[in-house]
Every structure is written in structure tokens, then in C-alpha cells.
């Protein structure tokens, strides 16, 4: 009798709780949209279609402000447009905290043994960059001459004397060389070059289905991460030995080796290796992508090329032979930077990022529950004619002060407290490349219509083939370098840039 009474009580309570939850669900107005298939949700459509199409189609179907979906195992609200950008950037730490998809957590946090068993607590892995100020202008000034000289060396090694060149492989090797030199203090090109494929695999695997079996994207990424991690542990040992012998170090890795937490405990080597791998990936893929597509769009627009070259040759004319770029030179590259900005608008090097919802909030008349994820993307504004006139046209002049984009419509580096800390590093690295490439080369794009693969990190379609060919393969005519140098030497004080252009 007592057992029957207990069963009836439990049954009644269960019905009451379920009814209450249903009433609560009805009172909570969730964003419109669909969670898709069981378990996988809409992950396949998100990853293997073009992300901007995924978002654009659902904005038209459900709402231009917000819609729900389920991607990478998470219930997600996608917020759209400049108002969404403003809302997100101004409410960091109030409603949102950084979130990295589980594949990314797995790849970059191997030192946390429970990474697979349970979700990891959100944390800011860029803190190591923000605190010591490694990426502030005053710190980057000391590295600028290295950026310039490394760029010159890479162009000479890969393009010198060739009629047909491949821009994407050079962009990847160059940016990885710069990242290794800046973050690790490592200057061994051969050692770096053999890591390029590993970084490619990780870049794709960061946003993939976590299926760790041979032949899958995530399996390749996991193997690549293990190989890079082993290499980094070797670099860490070498760095420690060098520091013990009295060598002075000014790179980020050295800082991570000597910094201690408030209790006096140093960071374990495994954690340092994972963090350094994350920084290298961040400093590699986005910069290489931007350089690659910059070569495409400048090659397709001769007037843009001429404007960039005129600006850069004026800077070159003001310098003595062999003199490297300085901070003041970079501030004069306004049109060149506009062309880079336009490249990032046309093909964003990173489509978007995720946040985790700290507390339930309302947006555009809908409620987003605590624990959901929020995804924001630049694709909701970049190609919208409401914000950019003639958006399909490559037009660097749209960034002139008189025509600057409206606030929160152009946000390639994010915004608010989580603005990309590497923004200035990326700007200098790409401008150093632009300065050198237009001084000595003019190119034609051989396949203007090559497709762009639509993953989170856009790459030209042929970059996926076994030959690693790339659509920005160009006919590169090396300018008469010796004549240029001779002309500068003979007319240092009254250098006539028009004479130089005629001679070329």
C-alpha cells in the first residue's frame, strides 16, 4: 500500500513538472528556425556549404535579425546585421563569454585530461598576448625590419626568375615563417616549411565533425596537432637551454616559459605547446588567406595595382639602398591598406566566431536561453547593398574618410573587448608583403573564375587538389630590379618616380 502511494506521488509530481516545463517553454519565445536532424542538427549544411549562403538563406526564411539552429552539437542563435554586432560587442561578459567549438577545444587543449569527458570551462587563451603587450605597436616596431627582410627573402626564393608562380603556397610559407619567428623566435625556414601541411589540416579541422577515424577531416587534424605539438616541445627544450646559457630572448615563447601564476607555479610545457600552436594557427591562416585573395583582386584590377604601386614606389624612393621599412612608412600606406580592407570584405579570412550565453537575454523580440551558443558572422553585412554600394565591385576607395562604412557594418577583426589582438600584426605583415611584391612584380590572374571552397577558412578550390595548385597562379614579370636600385642610387635627393616607371 505504501509503495503504491509512493508511486502515485512520484507520478503526480512528474506530470506537474512536465506541465510546468511545457507552459514555461510556451512562455519563452525562442528565435524562429530549425534544429535540423537529431544529433547532427544542421552541421553538415553549415560546414559543407558556403557559410554566407547558410546564413543568408535562413535570414530570408526566418528573420533578418536572428534565427536558431544546431551546429557542431550546440543549440545556437545566429544574430545578424550591424545591430547584432553592436549588441554582441557591447555586452561581452554581461551576456556572453568566449566559446570554442569542441573540435577546437580537443585540438588545442590536450594538456587538459578531461577534455573529451566533459565540456571545458570557457577561458581566454589570448590573455597571454594582451597582458605583456607583444602585439602593441611599440613592440611590433622592433619586429618590422624582420618582416620586411623575411618577405624579401621569400619572394626571392620562390618567385625569382619564374614566369609562372603560385601565390598561395608562398603566402602560407611566408606567414608561417613570420609567425614562427615572432612567436617562437625560430628562424629555420626548412623546419618551418615542412609544417605547412600540418597547419593546413588543423585549420580545416577546427570546424569539423568530431569523427576520429582514418580518412576524416578531424582525424587528419588530430594527427597534425600531435606532430606539431611534438615539434613545439622540442623547440621549448631548445629555448630553455638557450635561455639557461644566457641568451636574451624577446619572443612570446620565452615570456611563457618564465611567467608564473600568483602561487609561483610555472606553466607546464604541454600547456605552453598547445597555446603556442593556437597562436601560430591564428597568425598563419588568416594572413595567408588575405594575401592570396589580395593577389587575385589586385591582379584583376590594373587601376588598383597602379595606385598601390605609385604609393609604394614613393615610399621606396625616400629610402636609401638596402634600408628596411620603418613605422613611419607603414602609416603612409593608406591606399594599400584600403585595398587590403576591401579584400577582407570580399572574402573574409574568418567567417565568424561563437560565444556562450552566460545568462538568458532577449534580442529582436526573442529569448535566447542560458547555455545556448551565439554565432555572429561578417557575411550578414559585407555583401549587403544596404551598407556597401555596388558590393560585388572591388573598390578600395570606399574606405576613404568621406565614404567610411557605417559603424558595425565592417568588422573583420571583431569588436569590443574581444577585438582581435593580432590586428596590428596582420596589418604590418600584409603591408610589408604588398610593398615588396609591387616593387618588383606585375601579374595577371590565370583563372579569374576559380571557385572558393565554402568552409570557415576560405581557400581557392584548387588548393585542395593533390598538386596544391591555386587560382592566383600568376604570370609574374619581375621588374628590372638592378635598374631600380641604380636609379635610386644615382638620384637619392631628387628622385623622379615618373622616370623610374618609364624605365621599367
Automatic annotation (TrEMBL):
<keyword id="KW-0408">Iron</keyword>
<keyword id="KW-0560">Oxidoreductase</keyword>
<dbReference type="InterPro" id="IPR036396">
    <property type="entry name" value="Cyt_P450_sf"/>
</dbReference>
<dbReference type="GO" id="GO:0016712">
    <property type="term" value="F:oxidoreductase activity, acting on paired donors, with incorporation or reduction of molecular oxygen, reduced flavin or flavoprotein as one donor, and incorporation of one atom of oxygen"/>
</dbReference>
<keyword id="KW-0503">Monooxygenase</keyword>
<keyword id="KW-0812">Transmembrane</keyword>
<keyword id="KW-0479">Metal-binding</keyword>
<feature type="binding site" description="axial binding residue">
    <location>
        <position position="420"/>
    </location>
    <ligand>
        <name>heme</name>
    </ligand>
</feature>
<dbReference type="InterPro" id="IPR017972">
    <property type="entry name" value="Cyt_P450_CS"/>
</dbReference>
<keyword id="KW-0349">Heme</keyword>
<dbReference type="Pfam" id="PF00067">
    <property type="entry name" value="p450"/>
</dbReference>
<comment type="similarity">
    <text>Belongs to the cytochrome P450 family.</text>
</comment>
<dbReference type="GO" id="GO:0046872">
    <property type="term" value="F:metal ion binding"/>
</dbReference>
<dbReference type="InterPro" id="IPR002401">
    <property type="entry name" value="Cyt_P450_E_grp-I"/>
</dbReference>
<keyword id="KW-0472">Membrane</keyword>
<protein>
    <submittedName>
        <fullName>Cytochrome</fullName>
    </submittedName>
</protein>
<dbReference type="GO" id="GO:0016020">
    <property type="term" value="C:membrane"/>
</dbReference>
<dbReference type="InterPro" id="IPR001128">
    <property type="entry name" value="Cyt_P450"/>
</dbReference>
<keyword id="KW-1133">Transmembrane helix</keyword>
Amino acid at each position: 500500500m505504501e509503495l503504491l502511494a509512493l508511486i502515485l506521488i512520484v507520478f503526480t509530481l512528474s506530470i506537474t513538472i512536465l506541465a510546468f516545463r511545457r507552459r514555461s517553454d510556451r512562455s519563452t519565445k525562442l528565435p524562429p528556425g530549425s534544429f535540423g536532424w537529431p544529433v547532427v542538427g544542421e552541421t553538415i549544411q553549415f560546414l559543407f556549404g558556403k557559410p554566407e549562403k547558410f546564413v543568408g538563406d535562413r535570414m530570408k526564411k526566418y528573420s533578418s535579425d536572428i534565427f536558431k539552429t544546431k551546429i557542431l552539437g550546440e543549440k545556437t542563435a545566429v544574430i545578424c546585421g550591424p545591430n547584432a554586432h553592436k549588441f554582441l560587442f557591447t555586452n561581452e561578459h554581461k551576456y556572453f563569454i568566449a566559446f570554442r567549438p569542441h573540435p577546437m577545444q580537443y585540438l588545442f587543449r590536450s594538456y587538459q585530461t578531461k577534455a573529451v569527458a566533459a565540456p571545458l570551462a570557457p577561458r581566454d587563451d589570448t590573455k597571454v598576448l594582451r597582458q605583456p603587450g607583444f602585439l602593441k605597436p611599440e613592440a611590433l616596431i622592433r619586429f618590422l625590419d624582420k618582416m620586411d627582410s623575411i618577405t624579401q627573402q621569400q619572394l626571392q626564393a620562390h618567385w625569382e626568375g619564374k614566369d609562372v608562380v603560385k601565390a598561395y603556397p608562398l603566402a602560407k610559407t611566408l606567414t608561417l615563417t613570420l609567425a614562427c619567428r615572432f612567436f617562437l623566435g625560430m628562424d629555420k625556414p626548412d623546419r618551418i616549411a615542412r609544417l605547412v601541411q600540418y597547419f593546413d589540416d588543423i585549420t580545416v579541422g577546427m570546424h569539423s565533425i568530431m569523427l576520429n577515424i582514418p580518412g576524416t577531416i578531424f582525424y587528419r587534424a588530430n594527427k597534425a596537432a600531435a606532430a606539431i605539438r611534438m615539434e613545439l616541445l622540442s623547440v621549448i627544450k631548445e629555448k630553455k637551454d638557450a635561455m639557461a646559457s644566457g641568451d636574451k630572448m624577446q619572443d612570446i615563447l620565452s615570456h611563457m616559459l618564465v611567467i608564473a601564476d600568483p602561487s609561483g607555479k610555472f606553466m607546464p610545457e604541454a600547456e605552453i605547446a598547445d597555446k603556442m600552436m593556437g597562436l601560430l594557427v591564428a597568425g598563419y591562416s588568416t594572413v595567408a588567406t588575405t594575401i592570396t585573395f589580395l593577389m587575385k583582386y589586385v591582379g584583376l584590377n590594373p587601376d588598383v595595382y597602379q595606385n598601390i604601386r605609385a604609393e609604394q614606389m614613393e615610399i621606396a624612393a625616400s629610402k636609401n639602398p638596402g634600408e628596411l621599412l620603418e613605422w613611419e612608412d607603414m602609416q603612409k600606406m593608406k591606399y594599400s591598406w584600403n585595398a587590403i580592407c576591401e579584400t577582407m570584405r570580399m572574402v573574409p579570412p574568418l567567417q565568424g566566431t561563437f560565444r556562450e550565453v552566460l545568462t538568458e537575454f532577449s534580442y529582436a523580440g526573442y529569448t535566447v536561453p542560458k547555455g545556448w551558443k551565439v554565432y555572429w558572422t561578417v557575411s550578414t553585412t559585407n555583401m549587403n547593398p544596404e551598407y556597401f554600394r555596388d558590393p560585388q565591385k572591388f573598390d578600395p576607395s570606399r574606405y576613404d574618410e568621406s565614404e567610411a562604412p557605417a559603424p558595425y557594418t565592417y568588422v573583420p577583426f571583431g569588436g569590443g573587448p574581444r577585438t582581435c589582438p593580432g590586428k596590428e600584426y596582420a596589418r604590418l605583415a600584409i603591408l610589408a608583403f604588398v610593398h615588396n611584391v609591387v616593387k618588383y612584380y606585375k601579374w595577371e590572374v590565370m583563372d579569374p573564375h576559380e571557385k572558393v571552397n565554402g568552409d570557415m577558412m576560405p581557400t581557392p578550390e584548387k588548393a585542395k587538389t593533390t598538386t596544391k595548385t591555386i587560382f592566383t597562379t600568376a604570370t609574374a614579370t619581375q621588374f628590372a630590379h638592378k635598374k631600380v636600385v641604380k636609379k635610386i642610387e644615382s638620384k637619392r635627393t631628387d628622385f623622379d618616380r615618373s622616370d623610374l616607371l618609364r624605365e621599367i
